[in-house]
From TrEMBL:
Native organism: Mucilaginibacter gossypiicola
Occurrences of domain AB hydrolase-1 (ranges): 20-121
Name of this protein: Sigma-B regulation protein RsbQ
Spans through the membrane: none
Gene3D superfamilies per the UniProt record, alphabetical: alpha/beta hydrolase
A Pfam family recorded for this sequence: Abhydrolase_1
Similarity remark: Belongs to the AB hydrolase superfamily.
Amino acid sequence: MVNDVLNRNNVNVVGNGVQVMLFAHGFGCDQNAWKFVTEAFTDVYKGELFDNTGSGKSDISLYNSDKYSKLDGYAQDVIESCQALNLDNVVFVGHSVSSMIGLLAAFEKPEYFSKLVLLVPHPVI
């Protein structure tokens, strides 16, 4: 499962910290959106960057229009990433629609998250 998740979402880990800061990009971009932001946190946090399925260098062959027609499908990917990498106490940083994806993931599995940082959350529920 670990390699499946890492490959599906093109997961990259940067930094030297113990606590994980998970960076989730908005639609229309990829994890490179965080390129200059993550540098500010690598001494304190371990940064996990990933591409939403269907974006960036994610495995496009795993895109399923039924699963990803709702934000819950993307939230499930975040949860699976936490499970595969044995993460807890995660600081989730989401931009735009990924803010809402992070909220959905935290509602379903709050034990994985310690904080949610939501930048321009959209869509508004």
